[in-house]
């Protein structure tokens, strides 16, 4: 016999999937309307997205350089395709390939050059919140992860609050240098 006190854990898997599916659909329509979601899962990962300004600017500058150094070439269409391709790649990198930090219960992950890099809580030495940036110091010889408001347009205040909860949960030192 299923009691009310069992709550969600007492539901059948089919019912859980149906509730999850309907909640997801309702949250999508509410987000399109600009409203808050009806329910939030505390174990759901939080994703902070930024912009890749430097790489996009590099490709756009190369495109402009090719455009301004254009010589009088008759019938050379590949030059125009190359120039336009650099411009398109720069715009795609700015709008589509955005850097992110995903915070789950025990892991942090980010976009690497060709894959997603996942970092467990046991591999983090400390998290530093400095003015305008978040620095995640790793154990060993691994390079640190730096998230900057100026270069990558991350919401540093929201990241700091979520990473502070992450550090408290996983017993990692959190240093706040903004005070």
Automatic annotation (TrEMBL):
| Disordered as annotated region, ranges | 19-39
Q: Which UniProt keywords apply?
A: Membrane, Transmembrane, Transmembrane helix
Transmembrane feature ranges: 53-72, 78-96
- State the source organism's domain of life: Bacteria
What is the protein name given in its UniProt record?
Answer: Methyltransferase
- This protein's species is Paenibacillus allorhizoplanae
């Amino acid at each position: 016999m299923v009691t009310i006190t069992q709550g969600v854990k007492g539901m059948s898997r089919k019912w859980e999937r149906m509730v999850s599916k309907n909640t997801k659909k309702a949250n999508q329509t509410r987000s399109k309307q600009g409203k808050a979601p009806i329910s939030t899962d505390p174990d759901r990962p939080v994703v902070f997205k930024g912009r890749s300004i430097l790489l996009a600017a590099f490709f756009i500058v190369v495109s402009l350089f090719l455009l301004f150094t254009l010589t009088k070439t008759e019938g050379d269409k590949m030059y125009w395709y190359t120039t336009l391709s650099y411009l398109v790649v720069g715009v795609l990198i700015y709008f589509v390939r955005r850097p992110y930090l995903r915070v789950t219960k025990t892991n942090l992950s980010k976009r690497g050059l060709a894959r997603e890099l996942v970092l467990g809580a046991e591999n983090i030495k400390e998290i530093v919140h400095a003015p305008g940036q978040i620095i995640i110091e790793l154990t060993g010889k691994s390079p640190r992860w730096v998230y900057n408001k100026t270069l990558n347009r991350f919401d540093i205040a929201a990241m700091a609050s979520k990473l502070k909860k992450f550090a408290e949960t996983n017993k990692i030192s959190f240093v706040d240098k903004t005070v």
